[in-house]
Amino acid sequence: MKRITMVLAAAALALAVSVPAVLASGGGGTRIVLKPTKAFPSAKGSATFKAKAGERQLEAEVEHVRRLAGRTVTFYVGGKRLGSAKVGGLGTAHLERRNGAVPAVQAGTFVSVKTARGVLIVRGSF
Are 31 and 47 a contacting pair, CB within 8 Å? Predict the structure, then answer.
């Protein structure tokens, strides 16, 4: 009985880990979660990278940063500045780039969002 319980627990753990990873990379792209820093503990973010023959697309967003409403945040990919966006009244900022404006993205590439003063808001990696 103990052995069956262990096998079932291992199977449940394997499903819990593998299903989100499959869902996150579905739709022809890879989606990552950008985690908050101590300076902005309630912030959330995500980035999605899609690559097809002759076409690349990268979308990134940060949310729950209402205290930055009206200010500009800067998005970085692999340490290079991707662009800036203004935080809206609801505390969100979104940036989308295609083709030549998208830097090389591979496993381990970091995505980060910073304030105009360089304070890190969220960060994650592919």
Answer: yes
CATH of the domain at 93: 2.60.40.200
* Bridge-based pairing state of the strands 120-125 and 110-115: antiparallel
Q: Is 11 helix (H, G, I), strand (E, B) or coil?
A: helix
Per-residue burial over 25-58, b = 16 or more CB atoms within 10 Å of its CB, e = otherwise: eeeebbbbebebbeebeebbbbbbbbeeeeebbb
Let me know if residue 111 belongs to a domain: yes
* Predicted structure pTM score: 0.74
Decide if 5 is inside a domain.
no
The token duo for 2 is: 């103990």
Q: What is the pLDDT tens value at each position of the chain, 126 positions in all?
A: 555 555 445 555 554 544 444 344 445 688 999 999 999 999 999 999 998 888 889 999 999 999 999 999 999 999 899 999 999 999 999 999 988 778 888 899 999 999 999 999 999 999
| β-bridge partners, 123 | 35, 112
Task: Please check whether residue 79 is in contact with residue 62, taking contact to mean a CB–CB distance below 8 angstroms.
Answer: no
